[in-house]
Structure formats: C-alpha cells, structure tokens
User: Fold these one by one.
Assistant:
Number 1:
Amino acid sequence: MPISSTHLLFIISIIPVAVFAQSCLLLSGSFACPAFQQYYIDVEGLRAKNAWLSNATDVPSFDQALTQYIDSTDYYRIFWYDKLSCNAPSASQVVPYARYAITKLCTELVQDSQFSLPCSFQHNMNPPPLCRETCDAYVDSLNLTSSMGEPCVANMATIQRNQTLSDQRSDCGSWPGLNGTTDQGCIRGSLNEPSNCHGSFICGEIGNIFMDGFRMKK
Ligand SMILES: *[C@@H]1O[C@H](CO)[C@@H](O)[C@H](O)[C@H]1NC(C)=O
Ligand SMILES: *[C@@H]1O[C@H](CO)[C@@H](O)[C@H](O)[C@H]1NC(C)=O
Ligand SMILES: *[C@@H]1O[C@H](CO)[C@@H](O)[C@H](O)[C@H]1NC(C)=O
Ligand SMILES: *[C@@H]1O[C@H](CO)[C@@H](O)[C@H](O)[C@H]1NC(C)=O
C-alpha cells in the first residue's frame, strides 16, 4: 500500500516519541536481569556514568555488555584492585565473582533515580527495592571472596578494604533501592540468579577454594 500524505504526517509526528522511547529500555527477556523484566532502564542516560554501556542499545546487547563488564579487567581494576586491595591486574586475570553482584548491578541500574526510575514511572511501573538480605549476602560474599586465595588474599587487612566493606554494608541498610523488606515485595537475588554458576562463569576449577556464595572465572 502506497504511503499517503496522512501516513507521512503520522510518521513525522511520532518520531520525537520514538527517539525518547528508545532511551527507555524495557528489560523484557533479559537473561542478566530476569527478575527485572517488567522495569525500564534509560541506557542513554546511564551511559554517562557507565561507559561499559556504550554499545548497549537493546536487551541482548545490554545483557552482553553487563556480563562482559562484570568479568572484565576494567571492573577488576576499579573495584577488586582499587576498592578491595586485591593484587594488581595481570594479563591472565582471574576475576572473582561475589554472589549476587549481577543482581546488585541490575538493581542499581533500574533504581537510578535520575534516569531509569522516570522511565518506569512513565510506564506506571514502580520497581521494588532489592531485599536487604540479598544485599547483605552480597557483602558477605565480597568479604569472603576478597579474603580467600588468589588474587586477593595477601592484602586483605588494608584500611581501604575495611572501608569498602563497611560502606557496602551500610548501603544495604540505608539506600532505599537496596534495603527492601518482604512487605514491600522486595526482589530476591535467588530469583534473579538462582545458580551460583551460570553463563560463562566456570565453577570449581581452582582447587577447593570454591564455596557456596562465590565463584571465579579463569
Ligand atoms: C564497543 O564496540 C567497539 C567496536 O566493536 C569496541 O571497540 C569497543 O571496545 C566496545 N566498547 C565496549 C565498552 O564494549
Ligand atoms: C580491618 O578490620 C578488621 C576487623 O574486621 C580488623 O581486625 C583490622 O585491624 C582492620 N584493619 C585495618 C587496617 O584497619
Ligand atoms: C568480614 O568478615 C570478618 C571475618 O569474619 C568479620 O570480622 C567482619 O566484620 C566482616 N566485615 C563485614 C563488613 O561484614
Ligand atoms: C531504607 O532507607 C531509607 C533511607 O535511608 C529509610 O528511609 C528507610 O526507612 C529504610 N527502610 C528500611 C526498611 O529500613
């Protein structure tokens, strides 16, 4: 059917809406954030604070960017090395994984009050906070993971590491996106990440240092 002038007008008039809507990304079908599928993130807005999102434009590329980031040497450097005093990054980097780290990242993106929450509100959705017990389980796992075996064990008693753990713990109690209760219908980490060892992560390969609660990838 030929495009009539009425159609053209219609197409032109919806363009601004379409451009705006592109930035609000519904996480439907996400495998990295499956417990957040009803909620939105503003990928363009978040990009300014999260360079790792630069190639994310839709759900598959978002999933790929997130799972690559959490496993990257960049993330190791800015978090495990700078904040938790783990050993200097190396070419054959082992990137530790704290239980629920992906879930916590999903939460921070969805609960971003400047960019993402307005997207969800605009669609009449109000994402519940992460359950506080999930946040606490994440910090327990960070504590454990950064104190057992390579690449972290040697420097575990630094002031920096203590400060990071205590800041993370206090966020679980006082940040409204992380301190959720069952009454609020909080999101449980086990719903988002039922298994410790999914995706590209390899479990149980480095001797006997694997315990419930964390995993490492070679
Ligand atoms: C984005 O894609 C370009 C081109 O493939 C690549 O060079 C770059 O490293 C990617 N950026 C991120 C953050 O993955
Ligand atoms: C770090 O905290 C532990 C207790 O959790 C304490 O024993 C240790 O002295 C602290 N280290 C530094 C450098 O503050
Ligand atoms: C980390 O674990 C140590 C040893 O179990 C404990 O003393 C410390 O309080 C923990 N730190 C946090 C922030 O939970
Ligand atoms: C969560 O943190 C906010 C802000 O600090 C606070 O107002 C709220 O009472 C806390 N919620 C719970 C359940 O502790």
Number 2:
Amino acid sequence: MLSGECSSTSRLLDPLCGRRRLVVSAMTLPCTFYCSLWFLLLLGAGSLLLLVHLQDLSDTLQQQQNPGAVLVVAPGWPVQKEQSSDSAALVGFDLGGVFPGALRFEMSSAPILPSPGPGQPLAFQRSAHKASSTSENQQAKSPRPTPCDVHSVEDRQLQGMAQTQASRRRLLREVCAKYQPGATERPVSRRQVSRVYVEDRSSLLYCEVPKAGCSNWKRVLMVLGGSANSTRSIAHDDAHYANQLRRLDGYDQEGVAERLCSHTKLLFVREPFERLVSAFRDKFESPNSYYHPVFGRPIISRYRANASRYALRTGAGVTFREFVQYLLDVRRPVGMDIHWEPVSQLCSPCLLRYDFIGRFESLKEEANFLLRSIGAPSNLTFPDFKDRNPKAERTSSTIAQRYFQQLNSTERQRAYDFYYMDYLMFNYPKPYKDLY
Ligand SMILES: *[C@@H]1O[C@H](CO)[C@@H](O)[C@H](O)[C@H]1NC(C)=O
Ligand SMILES: *[C@@H]1O[C@H](CO)[C@@H](O)[C@H](O)[C@H]1NC(C)=O
Ligand SMILES: *[C@@H]1O[C@H](CO)[C@@H](O)[C@H](O)[C@H]1NC(C)=O
Ligand SMILES: *[C@@H]1O[C@H](CO)[C@@H](O)[C@H](O)[C@H]1NC(C)=O
C-alpha cells in the first residue's frame, strides 16, 4: 500500500508518454489509409465545446487506438502551459502541418457524441431522469425553481443553493477567462482527467480532492453504482482500494468525450491552508509507512540542521515549518503529492468546467443537495465518517492558525502565493490580513 488515502493509485501516467505515443502512432499511419479528423463544435451552456475526434476508418488502425493519446478538446484551462500547448499542437490543427497530406480534415454535422443543446440545463439539473438506480417517485426537486415555485423554507434553501452554485461557476469562469484567456480550445490530456472518478448509473464525474471529503464521496459513488448497499458497510480501505470505481483516464477518447459532455461534473474544495494543515497532520503526525520514508526523510535531511540519526533514518517528526519549506522550494528534494497539490492543478477546473462546486466547509448540506438534485435514492445521504485518525480533532481554522504561527510572514505569504489560484477560483478570503 503506497499511501494512506485518496491516492490508492498515484499519478502513474507520464503526461509525456501520451504525447510521445501519439506521435509514434501518427507517424506509423501510412498515407494510404483513409483517416479523418472530425471536428465537432458543440455549444454548451454558454460555452464552446470543441471535440476533436480522430477516427480511423481502417479496422486495423482502430485496434491500435492509442490509450495514451490526448483525448478531446474541451473548454478549459491547461494547468501546465507547456504540456498543453504541445498537445494542442499535436492533436489540433497543427497535425496537418506535421504530417502534411496524411490526414483529411472534415467538418461533420452528424453528431458523434450526444451534445447538449445551447438552451439545455446544466447536467446536474437534468440528470435525475437518467439515473437508472432511482425510482420514479424520487424525482428530484428542481434545484432552481422559479419564484412561483417557492413554497417552503426547504424550497428557498434549495433555491439558495442553486444560486450559490451558479455564482461559484460564474466566478470560476471569470477567473479562468482572466488568467487563461483562449485556453478553452486546448485539448484535454489523459493526465488531466486522471483524478476524475466515473459513476455511469447516475451520470456523475467526481474529481477527488484529498482532504476534502473524498473517502466519503467514494463511498457514495459505490452505493450509487450498486457495488455497495450502504455507505456504512464500506471500510476506509475498501473505499480506496476496492471501490470498483473507474477513473476517466481509463476510457478511450470517445468514452471520455462522451462523459465530459453528458455527466454531471462534481468537485469539492476546501480552504487551502486548512487542507494543507490537514494533509500535514494526517501524513506526518502519526506513523506512516509511506510518507515518512518517502517524504519525511528527504525533508528532514534538507531542511533540518543537526538532524539526529534517528530522524534521518525514519523520516519521522517532520515539523510543519520544514514541510512548508519543502513545499515552497523550487528545487524540492522530492516531488508533489495529491494531498497538498493545489486543486487548480489536480482537477483542471478551467478545462473541465465543473457543474457543481461544493465546499468542504458545508460538505454534508451541499453533498445532500447534489444527491437530491440528481435523484439519488432518498435513503442515501452523505456520510460523515472521519477516516483518518478518527480520534484526532478535525482540522479547523483555529487549528490551522496554530500551525501557521510557526511560519514567519514571508513564508506565510509564499504559501498563500502557492495556493493563490485556489483562493481565487473558489472564492476563499485571504486567511491573514497582511497577505497581498
Ligand atoms: C446488497 O444486499 C442484498 C440483499 O440484502 C445482497 O444480496 C447483495 O449481495 C448486497 N450487495 C452488495 C453489493 O453488498
Ligand atoms: C435504501 O433502500 C433500499 C430499498 O429499501 C435498500 O435496498 C438499500 O440498501 C437502502 N440503501 C441505503 C443506503 O440504506
Ligand atoms: C549544530 O551542532 C553544533 C555542534 O553541536 C552546534 O555548534 C551548532 O550550533 C548546531 N546548529 C544548530 C543550527 O543547531
Ligand atoms: C523567514 O524564514 C525564511 C526561511 O524559511 C528566511 O529565509 C526569511 O529571511 C525569514 N523572513 C523573515 C521576515 O523573518
């Protein structure tokens, strides 16, 4: 077992592999094969969705369809600029330039994938009827009722939550437009959907954000998908290592494109500093057979003067300040990890255009709102198991502040800079007044 939580499979896919393999497969295309590149322009809810479908007419070539290739073009924000622009060059319009004459471009009017019309409601508002697991009498309330529909306190709450969602999506769109203008035509790589879990029965895509309720979300997805009867019966390890959930990067490009179009895309975020402290406490304050040797040892040997031999050998006892020094070091002695990687990178929010952006701070209410909106069985409610160190107090803002007191103002500022996009995209206020 490599790591404790939410990382049952860490990022195994080298983003380069996808590109390299794509180049190779494209190079081997003999000119005699009829190949066509389908461009599909889809107008989504106010957004332009461009899907590139590379279709081989030859059966043999279809067999070779490349699992590592760049998948589709969706509206978005590529996190790694160089990688995305490279992949754009490979799969996008430049492909003709790379292999002149090898590919025939066609504009297709026949939709290959189910396309939401311009006026159609967002996925999370319309998917109730599609969930085969739900019964008819559990038709979800419209999350955005017109004023006339508001009869009860409950309706008003639902309306408020739907408005909150709309304003979170709007803000994210604005931040994306400001910081990555024009990025919406870039392709989605396999790596960028590698944290996204698929639940087809209720048409959900969930991007896991560790330390923001992901174990319980996996339990819910398992129940929705029918691999468990109740969230209660699912042990922590099973939620992560035996969850029978598929991830989006495991589908072929058409499967990915289809699901990005049709499914409700779901993301839960958390106050970045609190998430960071939560990750630190979880991975470094109690025994951990992965994080201590793999991260603790290099961190101590790099940032602690006069470290004891015991500390150097075990990697136990990393302090929060040492951990932050590692995080902010441009020449980190050991790489990143999904538990503290910014959500803006983990889940590619500009690229994938999430329909539902929930907050850990009101996890249960918002998660249940979503479950009712998609027409989940009424006895399925969001659980609140605390999986990691159940006896330790949950990381609160007070606890997070205690840890940040170990840092001086420069370090605090740099930590804020590190998570700045998360603060911006998800509208969390500056945690300290003196930050800029
Ligand atoms: C769910 O419960 C039913 C009957 O209680 C049982 O037959 C079935 O195996 C259970 N399914 C799972 C996935 O545990
Ligand atoms: C919900 O009710 C159904 C049918 O009564 C039952 O099979 C299922 O296990 C229940 N699910 C949960 C999560 O309790
Ligand atoms: C490291 O140990 C040496 C010798 O014991 C001591 O002189 C020095 O001040 C220590 N340095 C730190 C940073 O503790
Ligand atoms: C804060 O700590 C860093 C070491 O992490 C040090 O380089 C810097 O000078 C300190 N800044 C202040 C304002 O004390």
Number 3:
Amino acid sequence: MKRPLFTLFVAVAAAIAFTAAASSSNDIIKTFTDRKVQAFNHLVVDKNTGRVYIGAVNRLYQLSPDLDLVISEKTGPEMDSDDCSVLECTSAFSKKLTDNVNKALVIDYTTTRLISCGSLFQGICSVRNLDNISEGAREVREAVVANNATASTVAFIAPGPPNPPVSQVMYVGVTFTLGSPYRSEVPAVSSRSLDKDKMFTIAQTAVTTGTRMFVNSLARERYPITYVYGFASEGFSYFLTTQMRHTGSNQFISKLVRVCHDDENYYSYTEIPMDCISEAQGGRKYNLVQAAYVGKAGSDLASDLGITAQDDVLFGVFSEGDPAIANKPSDLSALCVYPLKAIRRKFMQNIKHCFSGKGQRGLDFISPSLQCVPTVSIYITYTYLRFAHPYGGEAALPLPVLIGRRRDLAMLDPD
Ligand SMILES: *[C@@H]1O[C@H](CO)[C@@H](O)[C@H](O)[C@H]1NC(C)=O
Ligand SMILES: *[C@@H]1O[C@H](CO)[C@@H](O)[C@H](O)[C@H]1NC(C)=O
C-alpha cells in the first residue's frame, strides 16, 4: 500500500494548490454581502435554475445565478423561550427577543420547494416557493432541528420509506440540547415525511420503533453527538459525527452512522469509527471531523484508490482534538479520502463479525449493549444486513492523509 498512498498524496496536494490559485481575489467575478446580518449559515444552489439561496441569522435570501439580490426575507428575531412547546407559547413564559439562526436549508426537487429550518420555536421548518421565497411560505409546527445558535443539525433529502427509491424523505441529525422540557421528543436521527399532509412528521412510526433514533434519557445529557455532514449513497444514508469513544470516556472520535433506505424501523442503524491517521507523522491521530463532502474521484485518484471515476468518494477534513478540551479542534488538520466501496465493506465486515457471535453490540447510549449472538443469516442479503438492535462496530478504517494547517484546508468545506 505504500506507493499508491504517496501518489494519492501528490494528486490531492496538486488539486489543493490548484484550488488555492483559482480563488485568488483577481478571479472573483461577483460577490454578495449584507453588512446588517450577523452570519450566513447555509447556501444551496438550484441545479436546474442556478438560483442561489442563503440561510442566515434572521434572514433568508434568494439570489440570481449572478448573485444579484432578488428577495431578502426577514425570519427573526421573535419573542421565544425554551419553555414554549412547538405549539404553545403563552404569556405565562418569560420570553425574550431571540435570533432565528438558520439550521438547515435544502431543495426538495420533487415538489420544487425550498425547505428552511431555524432555531426559533423548538426548531421548526418552513416550505417555500423556489420562484419566490416570500410567496405562499408555509410554516410547519413540528420540532425538527436544533433550537439554539450552536448545537449541530444536518439535513438532506434521499430515498426512504414507504416506498424507496420512489419516495423521498428528509434525513435529519440533531444534537440534543439542554434547558427545555420538550427536547426529549426530538430524535437524534430521523427520517421526516415530505408528504403535504404529514410534512416533517416522522416518516414511519410504531409504538417503540419507526424511522427515528433517540439517545437514551440516561445518556443524552452527557453524551453530546455533533452532526457534521450527511449524504446518501447506493441505498444507504450516512451521517458523519463526532462523539465520545463510549459512554464514560473523555476521548472524542469521529463516527459514521448508517441506515438503510428500505428500513421502516431503523433496524439497520449501524455506526463505525472513522480513523484519520498520519503514518508520516508517526501515527498521529486526527480524531475530529470538521467538514466533509461526497463526490467522484478524478481519474488519477480513482486509479490510485482502485475504483472507477463513477464510484463515490468521501473527502473529510479532520482536526486533532485540543489536549485540554477533548472535543475542541486544535489548529492542525488533515484531509482523508475514503472510497464508499471501502466504507461499505467495513460495515459489512463489522456486521458479519457480530453475526458470528464475536464482541459486543455496543452503542449503550441508545440501548444497553449486549453480547453479539451467533445468528443464522435469514436476514442477510447482499445489500441489506439488518439487526433488531442498533450496532456499533469496533474496527476503523485506515487511510491516506494530507496534512495542513486548518485554514489551508478550510477551502475544502463545501459550506
Ligand atoms: C414575491 O412575492 C411577493 C408576495 O407575493 C411580491 O410582493 C414580490 O413582488 C415577489 N417578488 C418577485 C421578485 O417576484
Ligand atoms: C446549545 O445547546 C448546547 C447543548 O445543551 C449547549 O452546550 C450550548 O451552550 C448551547 N448554545 C447556546 C448558544 O446556547
């Protein structure tokens, strides 16, 4: 493996040098600024029209493909309180003027709508017309995203129940927040319906199951999970996260969460640790993923990784955790590249390992961990390995890295 890794390093380094050169100030054609706004949180581009939408603090923008401002819509601040439920906010609560921080912004191409979710009112979403974001906006009273300025949220649309790949749902990963009596009702990971009649409700529910996963009530206050990126690939949806190595650990690691699209009960919920280790630096571990992107490899990278140019590749920028505050990134970072093929193989190996009766199921922050039991493989099919229990594999992926300062690699952040 030594030589291909070296080649990969050069290929990626060249790509970065090119990006750096391409983004010098001479090459900026157009800019959009609003000095009155605190921060831009998310940006999406309509792949059909080229229109640009920006979710910001207290604002939502619709821009032309040339970045000319078409519409600026005010979304906050408003009187709010953590004690208010999503439906009720009476004068009995001590409310204060609160910013609406955009937590998610996605285009639903099936219905040609813009979905935008903000931190106000327990994290609700609105559905808007892509032609004109101020026309016929519909606000849905359902707690979907994080309800404060800093807690993480990741949302994306991909196939899901009841009838994938025809039916689409919104996959959402949310950090649990303290201080409100209502947050225990918001799942950490869920698939939300995009049907007009049950917009943003959990796509499938039964008494104890459904398309949702909660961190259990004993663990959630001291087991923070940060959702960094989400994507779909070949029948599965994935979330990249940072979390503790296990409950009671003071070490933080990056983990990849996966659920099968064709799973109404999240029985296929599985996690694997993601390692980003620099052999060149004597095994230095970059443990905290900061940003990621799934795309296709160029032909050189594809041939180095032993995949085709059509195969998905996950690019992740990782930081080394600050020695003093375990989940705070330090200034050093690395880029790691993972073919999705290798990721799928790793999930499969882990699941087979547990099916053979070895090790623990893990993930005790969801439900108590059990010994893996030898399982006759009636449920095993080529694409779908399912457990009636969430499963956390132990083995992690080894991979090639590119080292840099954090700001050099920041340009790789797709947001
Ligand atoms: C968008 O819709 C609003 C409300 O109907 C209207 O006042 C505004 O002129 C429209 N803007 C554009 C650019 O079409
Ligand atoms: C948001 O919630 C998290 C978890 O409860 C907390 O750690 C963080 O400080 C909160 N952020 C703000 C800005 O209140």
Number 4:
Amino acid sequence: IMPYTLPLHRARRMVSRKKALLLLLLALSSLSVLIHQSAHLSWSPKPSSLNCPPTSLPRPKHTSVAFLKTHKTAGTTVQNILFRFAERHNVTVALPHHACDHQFCYPRNFSARFVHPHTLPPRIIASHLRFQRHELGRLMPNDTLYVTILREPVAMFESLFTYYNQYCPTFRRVPNGSMDAFLANPLAFYRPQEKFSMYAHNILLYDLGGDNNHSPADPTYLPSFIRQMEEVFSLVMIAEHFDESLVLLRRLLSWELEDMLYVKLNMRGPRSKGNVSSEALAARIRTWNALDAQLYEHFNTTFWRKVAQVGRECVAEEVRALRRACDQLVHHCFGGLPQLRPATQIKNKELRPWQPSAKVDIVGYDLPLAVSSSGAPPDERCLKLAMPEVQYSRYMLRKQSLRSRRRVVPHRPLPPRAVARPARGLPLRHPTMPKVA
Ligand SMILES: *[C@@H]1O[C@H](CO)[C@@H](O)[C@H](O)[C@H]1NC(C)=O
Ligand SMILES: *[C@@H]1O[C@H](CO)[C@@H](O)[C@H](O)[C@H]1NC(C)=O
Ligand SMILES: *[C@@H]1O[C@H](CO)[C@@H](O)[C@H](O)[C@H]1NC(C)=O
Ligand SMILES: *[C@@H]1O[C@H](CO)[C@@H](O)[C@H](O)[C@H]1NC(C)=O
Ligand SMILES: *[C@@H]1O[C@H](CO)[C@@H](O)[C@H](O)[C@H]1NC(C)=O
Ligand SMILES: *[C@@H]1O[C@H](CO)[C@@H](O)[C@H](O)[C@H]1NC(C)=O
C-alpha cells in the first residue's frame, strides 16, 4: 500500500488529476488480475486464498484415517476416495477377513480379529463395521483421525426401507411394503432381538456403537453419547452437504484437492426412489428414530459451526474449485457427462454394482471403450473412480496380499489378543446378508 499512497498524496500538487486517476486505475486493474489468477490456481487452494484465513505452515498429508462408514449415507463414495488415496500413497487399508465378507462381520461389534492378516498393520479403515472405540484403538496407529458421516433421518429412513426391504425381517413383515403401514404402528413389526433389525430403528446410533433401542425419554443417555463421540471424531460429515464435508475433510487431513475427486456411487435408479410426500409421515419417521434425529440435529449444528470457523466464503470457494475439478476428471474419463446405468447394461463386470434385490435397482457407470476427445481408452484412475465397493474391496485385498507375501520386514505386531486368528469360530455369513450399502 505504501508505494501507492505516497505518490498519490504528492500527486495532488505535483501531477494533474488526470494522471492520478490513471495511476489508480492501473493499480486497481493489476489487483484484479492478481485476484483472477489466484482463482485459476485454486485447483490446489493456497493458504493465501483471499477468503481463507491464513493457516500455519503446510503440513504433510495425514495418512492415518478411520472412517466409520454408516449405512445409506454416501459412505461408499467416501470409501472410494479413501481407497484411491491409499493406492496412490502406498497406505495399507484394513480389509475384512473372508468370513466377514465385505463388511467387518457387521452387525456384530467390531473386533480386530475380523481384519484380514494380509492387511496388517493398517493406516486406513473404511468398510462397514459397528464402532468399538477400544478395538479400533488397538488396531490403528495412535495418530489416527476418526471421521464419520450422518444423513438426515427422514430421507435416510426412506432409503433404508427400500434398500433393505428383503433383508430386514421387520420390513419384510410389512404388508405391501407400505411405509405408511409400518409407521402407523412400528412396534407391530419390529423385534429388536432379530438379526438385521437395526436397519429399521436408529441405525446411525447402532453403527456408532450406541444402544439404538434406548428410550428417547432418558434425558441423560444421548447427551453423554454425543460427548463421547465428540471426543473420538475429529469430523462428522453431513451427507446433505457432501462437498462442504469433503472440503472440511481435506483441510483436516491436509490433502490436495485432487485427492478428493469423486463420482457418486451406489445410488438407486429413479424407479427405486420413494417419496416421503407428507410432513405427517416425515414427523412419524423422526419420532420413531428420535435418537438418530437428535444426533443428526446436533452434528448438523456443529458442522456449520466448523464451516463458519474456516469461513463460509472460503469453504464455498473451495467447493466451487472441487466441483470444477470433478467435472474435468469426469470429462477426461467419460468424454462427457457419465450416464448412470442399471447393472444389466454395464458391460464391464468390474463396474457392475451389487443389487440388494430384484425390487431395487442400484445404478452404476460404464466406461467408454475410448474417450472421444483423445481416442485413448480410459485409464486406471477412471476405472477406480467408478468401481463399486465389492469389486474394489476384492481388488485391494488381492493387491495387498501379494505385497504382504513379498514383504521381508515383519510388520508391527498387534497386542496379543488382536492377532488375527483363523476364520474358524466366526459364523458363516447370513445367506441374505447384504454386501454393500
Ligand atoms: C509404492 O510402492 C511401490 C512398490 O512397492 C513402489 O514402486 C512405489 O514407488 C511406491 N510409491 C510411493 C509413492 O511410495
Ligand atoms: C456390543 O457393544 C455394545 C456397546 O458397546 C455393548 O453394549 C454390547 O454388549 C456389545 N455386544 C456384544 C455381543 O458384545
Ligand atoms: C504413538 O506411538 C509411537 C510409537 O508407535 C510412540 O512413540 C508415541 O509416543 C505414541 N504417542 C502417543 C501419543 O501415544
Ligand atoms: C395391499 O394391497 C392390496 C391390493 O392392492 C389391497 O387390497 C390391500 O388392502 C392392501 N393391504 C394393506 C394392508 O394396505
Ligand atoms: C414426491 O411427492 C411430491 C408431493 O406429493 C410431488 O410433488 C413430487 O413430484 C414427488 N416426487 C416423485 C419423485 O415422485
Ligand atoms: C442443518 O443446519 C443448517 C444450518 O443451521 C440449516 O440451514 C439446515 O436446515 C439444517 N438441516 C436440517 C436437515 O436440519
């Protein structure tokens, strides 16, 4: 500022008014060029970005993350981001033992025994599990950051009701698959002791390790549960604000914007999307899932407080940069907008998403044989971007098993009780247990 104010002040007397105006215009236009350039460089936003508060010195990327993947909350998309990061940075991902399928023996309480020995010691974990702080603490490095994601309970319940209509015994019992009929009298259908009953009642709380059948009338239970969560989780993302969530996650982990690129995975086709049309129905869903509703409300509030701490405008700017970068990648991979297709129309079987039942379509992507702009086949990065959970988990296990067999240096042993035992003793997977969610 100094070099400009001084000559300007003198200019009053020494230079004509016209010249001073010219000088000011010059200063303003070079400033605007600077602003413009910094917007273009925002692919990887710099701490100097105008709307963002200055950060301390750049930290190295944080590579130890425990993502608690909750059900029907866009968790598959976050998992895909973490898997791709792990591959690019040679970070080991904990994967379930064969006997646990693609989830860590969910709905059982998580145990370090469920982890495949070829994936020890891990720095990232991102598959479905029922949270147990202590067991994860024994498995993961002590600098691990814990994150999770929640979704608004009304939309979430509609999704669960459709997705698990054949798996959850509660939902199977409901005549005509009618959500109205269920909500008119949930207790007529719900049996808390049945396997997979948690899909029907406060599933967020269940996934987080809480008691999903606790009375919402108990004024002490939820506040103390929330306090524990806040001690453990550095970030609770909100599915309704997915891109803002990724911005906070990127900042927490000091990752690059490039590490956060995604396409949405594991979505239902339009035929399978229901509609909670009345406010009365929505209110019943919230009453039935009162614990989840309060949990969501609390963490939605803290989420926006975190956004405000970073600066709303700063977050909004980075969201725009993220969306631009995602568009660029999608264009590179699909040669245009990717078309969502039912699994039967996807030629590459590595890209066919798993279908929970004949009544529900889960749509996915096919990659073009050649990207029209370049004529080259889409690269590995594109394949992984669109790869559904089941195939990606299998692929990662194969890859890490090969590496673990080649490894000469023995890995850090777990405390004695955590050393993975053979699968014997674990019950076989329930024949109808859903593999993905
Ligand atoms: C990852 O590991 C592979 C094989 O061990 C090695 O070739 C590669 O350089 C490593 N990459 C990084 C980023 O460490
Ligand atoms: C699972 O964890 C919950 C919460 O920590 C606990 O109340 C319950 O007893 C555990 N269940 C089993 C079978 O260990
Ligand atoms: C974390 O673990 C390392 C070695 O594994 C140890 O040196 C360090 O003191 C531990 N830090 C904490 C906070 O426990
Ligand atoms: C189920 O659907 C049938 C035929 O559409 C109808 O007659 C019946 O009343 C329905 N039952 C309930 C409980 O809604
Ligand atoms: C959902 O219901 C609302 C209100 O009845 C209606 O306007 C909307 O078109 C419906 N959406 C779908 C996808 O059916
Ligand atoms: C989440 O919080 C924001 C900001 O307070 C609010 O605008 C929004 O309505 C909340 N979302 C829900 C679904 O409650």
